[in-house]
TrEMBL record:
<dbReference type="InterPro" id="IPR002048">
    <property type="entry name" value="EF_hand_dom"/>
</dbReference>
<keyword id="KW-0106">Calcium</keyword>
<feature type="compositionally biased region" description="Low complexity">
    <location>
        <begin position="1030"/>
        <end position="1047"/>
    </location>
</feature>
<dbReference type="InterPro" id="IPR018247">
    <property type="entry name" value="EF_Hand_1_Ca_BS"/>
</dbReference>
<comment type="function">
    <text>Involved in vesicular recycling, probably as a RAB11B GTPase-activating protein.</text>
</comment>
<keyword id="KW-0963">Cytoplasm</keyword>
<protein>
    <recommendedName>
        <fullName>TBC1 domain family member 8B</fullName>
    </recommendedName>
</protein>
<dbReference type="InterPro" id="IPR004182">
    <property type="entry name" value="GRAM"/>
</dbReference>
<keyword id="KW-0343">GTPase activation</keyword>
<feature type="region of interest" description="Disordered">
    <location>
        <begin position="1003"/>
        <end position="1051"/>
    </location>
</feature>
<dbReference type="GO" id="GO:0005509">
    <property type="term" value="F:calcium ion binding"/>
</dbReference>
<dbReference type="Pfam" id="PF00566">
    <property type="entry name" value="RabGAP-TBC"/>
</dbReference>
<dbReference type="GO" id="GO:0003094">
    <property type="term" value="P:glomerular filtration"/>
</dbReference>
<keyword id="KW-0479">Metal-binding</keyword>
<dbReference type="GO" id="GO:0005096">
    <property type="term" value="F:GTPase activator activity"/>
</dbReference>
<dbReference type="InterPro" id="IPR000195">
    <property type="entry name" value="Rab-GAP-TBC_dom"/>
</dbReference>
<dbReference type="GO" id="GO:0005829">
    <property type="term" value="C:cytosol"/>
</dbReference>
Length: 1100
């Protein structure tokens, strides 16, 4: 590897280096302790220094230096891991540089020329791969170490590296941590003790920062049941974030390919960089905080002050700019933020360069002022360019008018704070598919009704109107602590739909996709899928007691929204609980608004909740358990197993408490959810448990605890709800309300915010990432246990061997996915399929793993025999093999009886294995996980499997001439390299000759008994027997040289054939063959070898 020329002094360096070659201008040196005579104490000391110290020499045992005869100064210009590599560089210098150097008169010119040439070579090499790295020179050195130490496939992309200590028990090993796209790797070499660790990201169960008495701060990694601790990191937080990103990246790419496709920035595993991961993490945090569409990315961030209206103060915070939004969030505890869509911006002004301020004017005669922006000029230009505001001459007149309007607005605003009418925005009056929200249709408000509840509702509306007048309404509204206080007190019925749209960010989705919902409804109408069938079944189970869903109006709207969403997002389709949530959304929002609210909930606010494995809900339940341990220690002491709360709280998370609370109380919870996200649900869950603490501690079993919580939820009321009794559900099915103490939902929510409001959204997101690894690995482990339980009934392998075999099979599936997104195995992976079908191998992946595990070494990775085995075990001929099929093949060859092994080899030379094109192409590739599932076909398939009788040797067809010749060659291939190879060859030749004679005798007897049939001349028969015997009994060089895999028509001649019984009986007469096939196979040793060699035999 060429190095950027660096000046070094060799006064004491010769103690560590030996000169191998030299000439007038260059020296090739070898590191002491490497190569010949490199053992002993010298090798130990040098090896330790090379690992601990951060220099190129620590792994490059060879180097080339440039020097001048008149100077003691040398320049390092190249290094190499092997002698061949460094000699190649030396030869290049001899051929391309040495001849040119004789032209120069000055030694300084010679050095300048050499340095320039080497830098040119480095620049040429780095154009493709190193251009994105912060320090290409150091990164190239680290890459050299990484490739040498771990010997991973060259496609593996190193992302970053850190110096750290790895703890083996209580002993720290100082070394280097390497983080690459698919692996976490560590290397240490101290006084002859080498530590090498390689963990795949998809095998990690837990990743967290920890601290204890010995380790003040460290990173804990749990994989394969083993704990690994890394400490002494200079940048521990940075390291942990990168590790977290890579683990999450791997999980998404390998387990959730649909979600991964939505992130084009990380679509190519070969282009992942540290800088790219950091930018991706910041963008994800930015989108989550401001509830922005998934397409938005954080482009710029600037510290500044924002002038908050009517509070008369500037709040310190950060301006965040994306493709379509300008956002601000305070950092001084005032909890103030604002989201300005670029489509709303009218103009951007810089009123005063001395204060580094700029003013953003938005529609509705409103203005937002930022000050003390360090790079305000560039920010102003960025906003202008993204809004399409041009300072060109043709717009100068209108710009002048707008500039004057904005400036007068600012002046008026500062001088007359009591004049609030200018700050009131206009609501968007876009048309929806449905005319009104269902609550407006089925429960219109009576303006003349002056009962206490309606008066309180009017007071709430008045409070919100005052808030709107002060902080704006609609998009670009200021969100402050006062906004949250109003939310906690309850949202007026008339404003609920509008505020849900605003807080969730759905208002922006709808504004940027005009007509989308109508188009999707038209396209989805009339479609018939599994999702639509489930939707039809659940329509009348959605709030059946509410008048809106006792009529065709509500049911039709619900059907359209759910069907449209299933059409938009077939990965989710339809999941139970979506109907309950959508019903509530339709009560307070117009139909199109309800659709976009559902999009916001399913795709942003509750990611991975509504799919077959409900991973998102399980993750949040794990987060909930962590919060219980932290905030309710008394409960934890009494109920050590918190899995009970996971089971009982699943409906809380999936339906946002709608399924357990009366509808008039549940909507208050939904208010808080749309403002604060999942944090609001977690807080309320803690408050519910805290409220029932004494009762839960005194209960004796889970059933009693469930009863306690059920009664509590029945007692929750909303005393301020203006809804009539026909709509309210609090008293449905319960006649003992008078004897039970009711709990007001507003008080419960207020208590939740007071006690647990200090839970930060950032901590929740961090806990989500940490628990997601564990949840997914738990689901994967459940899948493995179910698969092993099914397969173990049909094979002789032990449970531990099956466990190891499954890990190898799954890793082989992933190896085809690590370095590309287009592998057939990844494209066909669908977690919603049956356990056995989730991980499957195509022919290329199968051939690699099978060649590592089959007992006789007769199948290479690209042999025809591998293809025949693949076709034989691929029962449904879809070009993919599942774990059960793979295990059957390995079990038969390793643990089967002599008869079963021979039958397997015999069937390899019969159709369908032997009689198909040798292309290995997937011929049938059905769509998986989509469309309407034919349940009848599945039931029929299962019935056939149950009724399938055991195959006997009499059921096997006869093997013809070409097939038998290939069968004999396969036997020769199997015996090749065996200690008794010659004896086995002679035995096969004897069996072949015997079978041919038996066939000839049988044919002649048949001809004698049938004199009317035409017979061949005896000469022809003798010649055929002789040539056939020669073909079948001569050992071939390789079975891959033959292409006689198809049964050929022998023209007018009659082919001879054998039954399996004849072949078996003949081979049983050869003890040496019987001994060979009955020889036990050490499957444990095979599995261990395969585990080591699997990465090196990666499929290209």
């Amino acid at each position: 590897m060429w190095l950027n020329p660096e000046e070094i002094l060799l006064k004491n360096a010769f103690k560590l280096w030996l000169t191998e070659k030299d000439n007038e201008y260059f020296v090739l040196q070898r590191r002491r302790g490497y190569g010949e005579g490199g053992g002993g104490l010298t090798g130990l000391l040098v090896g330790t220094l090379d690992t601990v110290l951060d220099s190129t020499s620590k792994v490059a045992p060879f180097r080339i230096l440039h020097h001048r005869p008149d100077s003691q100064v040398y320049w390092s210009i190249a290094c190499g891991v092997t002698k061949e590599e460094i000699v190649q560089h030396w030869d290049w210098l001899q051929q391309n540089i040495m001849r040119t150097l004789s032209v120069f008169d000055s030694s300084d010119d010679i050095t300048s020329f050499v340095q320039g040439k080497i830098r040119g070579l480095i620049a040429e090499e780095g154009k493709s791969s190193m251009v994105l790295e912060e320090d290409p020179e150091k990164f190239r050195e680290a890459l050299l170490r990484f490739e040498k130490w771990f010997e991973l496939p060259p496609q593996e992309k190193l992302v970053t590296y850190y110096s750290c200590s790895y703890w083996r028990g209580k002993v720290p090993c100082q070394g280097w941590l390497y983080l690459s796209t698919n692996f976490l790797s560590f290397y240490s070499y101290l006084l002859g003790s080498e530590v090498k660790l390689v963990i795949s990201w998809d095998e990690i169960w837990k990743l967290e920062k920890t601290a204890n008495v010995i380790l003040t701060e460290s990173i804990h990694v749990l994989a394969h049941g083993e704990d690994h601790y890394f400490s002494m990191l200079m940048h521990l937080n940075e390291t942990f974030v990168i590790m977290e990103q890579l683990a999450d990246y791997s999980i998404k790419r390998l387990f959730d390919k649909e979600a991964f496709k939505k992130e084009p920035a990380l679509s190519d595993p070969m282009q992942i960089t540290k800088r790219g991961l950091e930018a991706h993490a910041k963008s994800a945090q930015f989108r989550t905080f401001f509830r922005l569409p998934n397409e938005e990315n954080l482009l710029e961030a600037h510290e500044s002050f924002l002038w908050v209206p009517f509070c008369h103060f500037n709040t310190l915070g950060k301006i965040c700019l994306s493709e379509n939004y300008l956002c601000f969030a305070s950092q001084d505890g005032s909890q103030c933020h604002i989201i300005i869509p670029m489509r709303e911006v009218v103009n951007v002004e810089k009123p005063d360069s001395s204060s580094k301020a700029l003013t953003v004017c938005v529609r509705g005669k409103r203005a937002v002022r930022f000050s003390e922006v360090r790079d305000y000029q560039r920010l102003a230009n960025s906003i202008r360019s993204r809004c399409g505001i041009s300072p060109s001459p043709q717009h100068s007149a209108s710009s002048g008018v707008i500039r004057g309007e904005c400036q007068s607005l600012i002046n008026h605003f500062e001088d007359n704070p009591e004049d609030v009418t200018l700050m009131v925005g206009q609501k968007d009056s876009s048309k929806a598919v449905s005319t009104e929200a269902l609550m407006t249709v089925f429960h219109p408000q009576d303006v003349e009704n002056l009962d206490p509840k309606m008066l309180k509702e009017k007071m709430k509306e008045q409070s919100w109107n005052i808030h709107f007048s002060e902080y704006g309404r609609g998009t670009s509204m200021f969100f402050t602590r006062k906004t949250r206080d109003l939310i906690v007190r309850g949202v007026p019925e008339a404003l609920r739909g509008e505020l849900w749209m605003l807080f969730s960010g759905a208002v922006n989705d709808m504004a940027t996709h005009p007509g989308y919902y109508t188009e999707v409804v038209e396209q989805s109408l009339g479609t018939s899928t599994l999702a639509t069938d489930e939707i039809e079944r659940d329509l009348h189970r959605s709030l059946p007691e509410h008048p809106a869903f006792q009529s065709d109006t509500g049911i039709s709207a619900l059907r359209r929204v759910l069907t449209a969403y299933a059409y938009r997002n077939p990965k989710i389709g339809y999941c139970q609980a979506m109907n309950i949530l959508t019903s509530v959304l339709l009560l307070y929002a117009k139909e199109e608004e309800a659709f976009w609210l559902l999009v916001a909930v399913c795709e942003r606010m509750l990611p991975d909740y509504f799919n077959r494995r409900i991973i998102g809900a399980l993750v949040d339940q794990a987060v909930f358990e962590d919060l219980i341990r932290e905030n309710l220690p008394q409960l934890v002491e009494h109920m050590t197993d918190l899995s009970f709360f996971s089971s009982v709280s699943l409906s809380w998370f999936l339906t946002l408490f709608i399924s357990v609370l009366p509808i008039e109380s549940a909507v208050n919870v939904v208010d808080c959810f749309f403002y604060d996200g999942i944090k609001a649900i977690l807080q309320l869950g803690l408050a519910v448990l805290d409220y029932n603490m004494d009762a839960l501690i005194s209960c004796h079993d889970d059933a009693e605890a469930v009863t306690i919580l059920s009664k509590f939820f029945d007692s929750v009321t909303n005393k301020d709800s203006p809804l009539p009794s026909t709509v309210q559900q609090a008293s449905v099915g319960h006649n003992d309300n008078s004897s039970r103490l009711n709990v007001d939902i507003s008080e419960l929510i207020r208590e939740a915010y007071e006690k647990y409001g200090n839970i930060r959204s950032e901590e929740v997101e961090s806990s989500r990432k940490r628990n997601k690894l564990y949840v997914i690995q738990t689901l994967e482990d459940t899948t493995k246990q179910n698969v092993i339980r099914v397969v173990s009934q049909e094979v002789k392998f032990s449970a531990s061997n099956l466990d190891e075999l499954y890990n190898l099979f799954k890793r082989q599936h992933f190896l085809s996915c690590y370095w590309t997104m287009q592998s057939p195995a990844l494209l066909h992976h669908d977690p919603s399929l049956a356990y056995l079908e989730q991980y499957q191998l195509g022919f290329q992946q199968f051939s690699v793993l099978f060649s590592l595990l089959e007992p006789w070494g007769f199948c290479t990775t690209k042999s025809t025999l591998s293809l025949w085995v693949f076709r034989l075990i691929d029962e449904n001929q879809d070009g993919l093999v599942n774990f059960k099929e793979f295990c059957w093949a390995i079990d038969t060859l390793c643990c089967g009886s002599f008869t079963n092994k021979l039958k397997f080899l015999f069937k390899l030379h019969l159709p369908p294995a032997f009689d198909l094109p040798e292309d290995g192409v997937i011929r049938k590739s059905p769509e998986r996980g989509r469309g309407k599932v034919d349940l009848q076909a599945y039931l029929k398939q299962w019935q056939n499997e149950i009724l399938k009788k055991e195959e006997t040797i009499k059921d096997l067809p006869r093997i013809n001439q070409n097939q038998f010749i290939q069968f004999s060659k396969t036997l020769y291939n199997i015996f090749q390299g065996d200690p008794e190879e010659e004896t086995l060859y002679r035995a096969v030749a004897h069996v072949t000759s015997l079978l041919l004679r038996m066939e000839e005798v049988g044919r002649r007897l048949q001809e004698t008994s049938s004199p009317t049939e035409p017979t061949k001349p005896s000469g022809a028969s003798a010649a055929e027997e002789e040539s056939s015997a020669e073909d079948a009994s001569s050992p071939p060089e390789s079975s891959d040289t033959t292409s006689s895999n198809n049964s050929q028509d022998a023209g007018t001649e009659v082919d001879w054939s054998f039954s399996f019984e004849q072949v078996l009986a003949s081979l049983l007469n050869e003890p040496v063959i019987v001994r060979f096939f009955e020889r036990p196979c050490d499957i444990q040793h095979k599995l261990a070898q395969a585990r080591v060699a699997q990465l090196k035999l990666k499929v290209n």
